Amino acid sequence: MDASVHSTFASRYVRTSLPRFKMGENSIPKEAAYQIINDELMLDGNPRLNLASFVTTWMEPECDKLIMASINKNYVDMDEYPVTTELQNRCVNMIAHLFNAPLEDSEPAVGVGTVGSSEAIMLAGLAFKRKWQNRRKSEGKSCENPNIVTGANVQVCWEKFARYFEVELKEVKLRDGYYVMDPEKAAEMVDENTICVAAILGSTLNGEFEDVKRLNDLLVEKNAETGWDTPIHVDAASGGFIAPFLYPELVWDFRLSLVKSINVSGHKYGLVYAGIGWIIWRSKEDLPEELIFHINYLGADQPTFTLNFSKGSSQVIAQYYQLIRLGYEGYRNVMENCRDNMMVLKDGLEKTERFEIVSKDEGVPLVAFTLKDHNNFNEFQISDMLKRHGWIIPAYTMPPDAEHVTVLRVVIREDFSRTFAERLVIDITRVIHELDLVPSRVVSTNTITVTGGEEDADNDGTVTIANQSVLETQRKITTAWKKFVMNRKKTNGVC
């Protein structure tokens, strides 16, 4: 009998368990394979309700078509796909001009498309390390113990670079009310082994832009005093496609003499699906020639400077689509709309009188907020209960020395509408009301009961914090709940 007349769900392939960690002995029908995978994926969260992520979750249908039409092109085959290579070069030049690179009219920009800002940062770091090594060798000095100065709020990709490529990461600690790198302290930490200072245009913690101009001025003075040549890299993963359109008067880019390279994520506010980043250098002198590889076995000579080799062309083409489709005016409209919706959410949260806003109005369009009163519940509980309404909102602790502060963060993307903002305020208000009705987990004797068997808890699951100050109490509660969340394998994190 023809198997096609049977319902997919009545077939043995979806009625019995299939091997999960080994390949099956036999093939299964394509319809069954599709249905099995599709059904499991239904249990994932809704990407558009994932407000933890900065990554684009919606594009126009026309761009979706271009992505699917080019999904089988390997970008590295430049000789076979010369138009795709040309589109990538156009993107590099458009972004370089957007960042005010000092280029002559006919001078090509120096940069490359990457899988994301993580790869871009690796490439920038390698260029700085090699430049520093070359200079030290020419001066007859040791090339050991290179370091990078950053704020403690940097993304994990900087820690990866430091560990993978044996560079010390010197972090400027944060403090209460100031959650980005202090440029004065950063300049003080610079020494002769510093290959660069990394500034962030759009901290993932609270969206704030670091003061790159102040950092540049301080390093110009220090370089003049010491004879060093310490440069700046700007990690503009989140803010690089925001500042030029919302804050064109803000000086943070190649207009500053010590800014030698900038990375930006096309898959964040560049408005492209995940898988594309960009690294732009100020000039060709800032990218050591020995780091560039030349290959010819795919056709013509092809210069390349990437950590990976093969990758899809789709996101490069999608980036070009967005740049020519939206133009300056279109990007400005999108960013202004994101900022307006951010203000709707911020105003709604402030009206509850339950939260303190720790994000800034100028910066990445996001709202980071913390509870004013932690006596009855905390941010982790709010995050957990909001999942019942479909929202994915991270709760996390700040880096040292502000780790006692716990924050909720909502990232406003292009597809986060005003209706969404208003609905989220309603749901957060409902969750707070529900938590108000739950017996307090923090009792009058200054003890917190957390089930789950934390390492520093009493045998009955109670963490005693008697005779502690308010600040110490909040730190103890935050630590206990953080461990509780980790034991439950929650995945809320900083994205």
Automatic annotation (TrEMBL):
GO terms for biological process: L-glutamate catabolic process. Keywords: Calmodulin-binding, Decarboxylase, Lyase, Pyridoxal phosphate. The modification N6-(pyridoxal phosphate)lysine is found at K268. The keyword Coiled coil does not apply. The keyword Lyase applies. Its cofactor is pyridoxal 5'-phosphate. It is an enzyme of class 4 (lyase). GO terms for cellular component: cytosol. It comes from the Eukaryota. Its EC number is 4.1.1.15. One of its GO terms (molecular function) is calmodulin binding. It catalyses: L-glutamate + H(+) = 4-aminobutanoate + CO2. InterPro entries: Glutamate_decarboxylase, PyrdxlP-dep_de-COase, PyrdxlP-dep_Trfase, PyrdxlP-dep_Trfase_major. Belongs to the group II decarboxylase family. This is Glutamate decarboxylase. It comes from Medicago truncatula. The gene is 11433639.
